Amino acid sequence: MTASDDAIELAGVAARAAVAKKALDPVAFDVSERLAITDLFLIITATNERQVGAVVDGVEEALLKIGRKPVRREGDRENRWVLLDYLDLVIHVQHSEERALYALERLWKDCPRVDLGELEAPAE
Question: On the CB side of 42, how many CA atoms lie within 13 Å of its CA?
Answer without folding.
Answer: 34
